[in-house]
Design brief:
The structure is a homodimer of 167-residue chains. With 167 residues, chain A is α+β, with helices and mostly antiparallel strands. Helix content of chain A is 33%, strand content 31%. The first copy, chain A, folds into two domains: 30 residues; 131 residues, 2,3-Dihydroxybiphenyl 1,2-Dioxygenase, domain 1 (Roll).
């Protein structure tokens, strides 16, 4: 490589590095009003929640809660404690359960959504809207844990239904 | 309620409680050789891993690793750090990737499996076999993190592919 080429290559690296720093600085500034946290839970829809609870409690030996009716959400929930992130077992409650359609397509059950904590859900919603991520509701709603939540469109999240929960 | 009925009801409660204690004691003894731990990661299969990485890094502001080729597993992996539990983004590498079939059925991508840590994978495998949970391989294999892993049959786990990883 000639001296000239080496100088050009060196300059290129310098520009890339400098751009990289500015890019990250801009990104941090832009997203400064909210922060993403840990994964709160992974929700699994189950045709038979007693059987699913027995798997995690009796076969795998995890700590498993009682079954709770969540009438306003159209589901029964059971929580499985596995470190900092829980599994939320769901089964339909009532005629118009929001998970019935999923269970019609997935007869054995399956992973329904993932819930990630945020420190400021209103700022997160504003920011995500500006970044062209579709939200499934205009405003946040009170979720099964009594905290504000919002769902993001699976088509904007690589095929995964993502719930954000205010912590 | 007559005195006789109250006595019978009291005895019933006593038997139920006593059976409950023995049941749990037996269970603990039976599963004493291994313990379940935390959720290590949730794996998501992605048709476009760069786009998925950008969502978690640039839109949601999470810490996201570089893309790593895992030739022996037929996938590229990217890890997203969200507290104690990671998201593992997967995309096919080579002609016979084990996640190609899943992506053919789920064009936008989706949640592929969940990985839970165990303290003794060989004891866990013996115990689960005895409890009629089908394992997808006769022996554990070295997974993408260099540790022994085994997969459990989704039909025995409420429609969810569960990976156990030795910690």
């Amino acid at each position: 490589m000639s001296k000239f080429c080496r100088t050009v290559a060196g300059l290129e690296r310098l520009v890339r590095r400098s751009w990289g720093r500015n890019y990250h600085a801009t990104k941090t500034l832009y997203a400064a009003n909210w922060k993403i946290g840990k994964i709160n839970h992974i929700a699994m829809a189950c045709p038979d929640i007693e059987k699913a609870s027995a798997l995690y409690r009796d076969v795998l030996g995890a700590k498993v809660s009682e079954k709770h009716p969540q009438e306003e959400h159209g589901v029964y929930t059971v929580f499985v404690e596995l470190g900092d992130t829980k599994i939320e077992l769901l089964t339909p409650l009532g005629e118009k359960s929001p998970i019935q359609n999923f269970l019609d397509k997935n007869k054995n059950g399956g992973m329904h959504h993932i819930c990630i904590e945020v420190d400021n859900i209103e700022e997160a919603m504003k920011d995500l809207k500006a970044k062209k991520i579709r939200l499934l509701s205009e405003t946040s709603k009170i979720g099964a844990h009594g905290k504000p939540v919002v769902f993001l469109h699976p088509k904007d999240c690589n095929g995964v239904l993502v719930e954000l929960e205010q912590e």
